[in-house]
From TrEMBL, chain A:
<dbReference type="GO" id="GO:0010011">
    <property type="term" value="F:auxin binding"/>
</dbReference>
<keyword id="KW-0833">Ubl conjugation pathway</keyword>
<keyword id="KW-0927">Auxin signaling pathway</keyword>
<feature type="domain" description="F-box">
    <location>
        <begin position="1"/>
        <end position="48"/>
    </location>
</feature>
<dbReference type="InterPro" id="IPR032675">
    <property type="entry name" value="LRR_dom_sf"/>
</dbReference>
<dbReference type="GO" id="GO:0009734">
    <property type="term" value="P:auxin-activated signaling pathway"/>
</dbReference>
<dbReference type="InterPro" id="IPR041101">
    <property type="entry name" value="Transp_inhibit"/>
</dbReference>
<dbReference type="InterPro" id="IPR041567">
    <property type="entry name" value="COI1_F-box"/>
</dbReference>
<comment type="pathway">
    <text>Protein modification; protein ubiquitination.</text>
</comment>
Automatic annotation (TrEMBL), chain B:
<dbReference type="InterPro" id="IPR053793">
    <property type="entry name" value="PB1-like"/>
</dbReference>
<comment type="subunit">
    <text>Homodimers and heterodimers.</text>
</comment>
<keyword id="KW-0927">Auxin signaling pathway</keyword>
<dbReference type="GO" id="GO:0009734">
    <property type="term" value="P:auxin-activated signaling pathway"/>
</dbReference>
<keyword id="KW-0539">Nucleus</keyword>
<protein>
    <recommendedName>
        <fullName>Auxin-responsive protein</fullName>
    </recommendedName>
</protein>
<feature type="region of interest" description="Disordered">
    <location>
        <begin position="22"/>
        <end position="113"/>
    </location>
</feature>
<feature type="compositionally biased region" description="Gly residues">
    <location>
        <begin position="22"/>
        <end position="40"/>
    </location>
</feature>
<comment type="function">
    <text>Aux/IAA proteins are short-lived transcriptional factors that function as repressors of early auxin response genes at low auxin concentrations.</text>
</comment>
Amino acid sequence: MDLRLPSKVLEHIFSFVDSNEDRNSVSLVCKSWFETERLTRKRVFVRNCYAVTPAAVARRFPGMRSLTLKGKPHFADYNLVPDGWGGYAWPWIEAMAEKSPSLEELRLKRMVVTDECLEKIAASFKDFKVLVLTSCEGFSTDGLAAIAVACRNLTELELRECIVEDLGGDWLSYFPETLTSLVSLDFSCLDSEVKLSDLERLVSRSPNLKSLKLNRAVSLHALGSLLCLAPQLVELGTGSFSDKLDQEAVSKLAQVFTELKELKSLSGLWDVLPEYIPLLYSVCPGLTSLNLSYATVQMPDLVELLSRCSNLQKLWVMDLIEDKGLEVVASSCKELRELRVFPSGADVDETNVALTEQGLVYVSEACPNLESVLYFCAQFTNAALVTIAKNRPNLKCFRLCVIEPFASDHETHQPLDEGFKAIVESCKDLQRLSVSGLLTDKAFEHIGRHGKKLKMLSIAFAGDSDLMLHHLLSGCESLNKLEIRDCPFGDTALLENAAKLETMRSLWMSSCGVSFGACKLLSEKMPKLNVEVIDEHSPETRPDSSPVEKIYIYRTVAGPRMDMPEFVWTKHKNPEIGVSHLAIE
Amino acid sequence: MITELEMGKAESELELGLGLSLGGGTAAKIGKPGGGGAWGERGRLLTAKDFPSVGSKRAADSASHAGASPPRSSSQVVGWPPIGSHRMNSLAAKSAREEEEAGKKKVDDDEPKDVAKKVQVGFIKVNMDGVAIGRKVDLNAHSSYENLAQTLEDMFFRSKPGTIGLTGQFTKPLRLLDGSSEFVLTYEDKEGDWMLVGDVPWRMFTTSVKRLRVMKTSEANGLAARHQEPNERQRKQPV
């Protein structure tokens, strides 16, 4: 008796399997499941654009409608990856244009996207709907115009923290009058002023518009008229909040805000003047997400606002909120799930010392759903970490950045080993952790022993020896991404735990003590990894024992990449390992 | 040479002909912190100064791209603190605007902002020659020069066994104050002059010090000191 389910039945069943993690498991069961799954997968995520070739992805998933790609490693956000390293979107767009012309959605993160790419998208995908670019660079506003003019069914255009060559605000005018499908528009990272009348007309003819994030150049006055046209907004990113308005204009604006009955998310608020804070009071009770990280108002004003946000789940704010302000957040925002506190000064010297570990302790005590934290602070204590760990065992993401490198517990002058031990012991579901402050190898012994669900770990200026790396690679079973900078280990732990690297997505190490010889050895032993040495000076002109600047190691089935710049070395550049003094063209 | 890279070896043993021997080769022996065998070998802690800064030029490029100059950072460390470039540019633009406005308007309406932001509470910066990353000490937490010197010694030359300090090379105690070691402790006072630490009463020192520097003795010649002869002789001892 043939026990196989007919593929039509399988297809129907698989249509209920949404998560790609589940779909990946499904495809491992047997050949027919693999086949059925791949034919029915609509949304494809490639979390490292060099792990697989565009052609292979297109071949495997012919029904693909949505593609998400990530390029550069995370530390590129902090300028640690030199320009020209890679992460080019073009090969992907070219391949999809040919093999998956029904593609509707493209989401790219940390990739190099050129105007040619955008033009190609506009020309190739007839039913293109969604373009989301996060931390991308390489394109200009001309490319945006190409998208605007050609994508008749565009629903989402979002530019999040991209570096764009801004040639002016004309691009917005290219949206045709016939385009009425817009649901989300985010141009907050652009500098130039767009024509207000074009923007107003666009908003007026977009009844489905739910999310609008303006750039800084949009004045407060303009905001008022836009909001009149889009009272249905769920997400709003304001422009600059600092024009001087007369009394009448202010009350009109206040009125407009009271009409925003659906508003759940508010951001922007650049340069917001304290006297305009009350304008926002009417929307506060409905807000679940509030991004004040560019609002340079002081604690008393922040407190006035936040005490009214009883439904807030996500809060991003600067350290201007101080401990006192976080105490108010703790008592007012009981639904809080995610808290990010950013520094208000660019320099270590300018750290606001009225924000200490106590602020985070308050929130951890009072907000039962708090599961994600990013906290920049001048200094910390083990006692605070222990308390936070005890209060919030449900933490999933804990990123603490003690701004002073090597800062010890400021009360006991001990390393913060015990504090982070408490965190990993107590928070059994912790998936992402960033550590900072003075840490010895012991801290990493604790992390290795207890951080069993840890997927991503970021480390800077910590540890004493190879032991630290060894603890992590041998202990953290779920480790997927590890990024380390300025830590004193060498080759031994890396080579001992080489096999682990194939179970991880990637490993980044910069300004550590790993030698060129070790990189070569690792490359040779582990053919399924790309071991990239990123060094301004070709490592081959130096002895094998000399340490290299940066190393990026990732598993891949795509083999060596063809687009490496001069300053990236892999073994494929010079197949005869061990022969030094080869000049690189 | 190629033979140093043993390609045919069993998975559990990796042998390097690079001067690092792995001894037992298995992870089981790792229990000893800083102990013998493989784990005695440590990498040298490198500071940003050891490399030409590949990243910082890009920071300057991308920052100017976005229309603001990169923030002037007191340490030379690229990418620290880990704030995304958009945010960095925004902070830089903000402080540039504030400086501009401070030049134009009178201080009065800026005061509350300054108080919130710039209160240092007794923390002053300490830099050491040859180390890119500066540290901070809380003067209020110290009662004497000896106290302070000890803290600085712990900070820059951690003498605990099994650990390395920032520089990784020095393990003997420093004795910053008596002029007998390779380094001397100096400070910049309110007038901008650099002086040798230890000449004035502690209280007077804490009110006039702006920042500290652990300087190589060889470079400390000619620094202003209140008491001249006996101390000078001591400090000019060969390194």
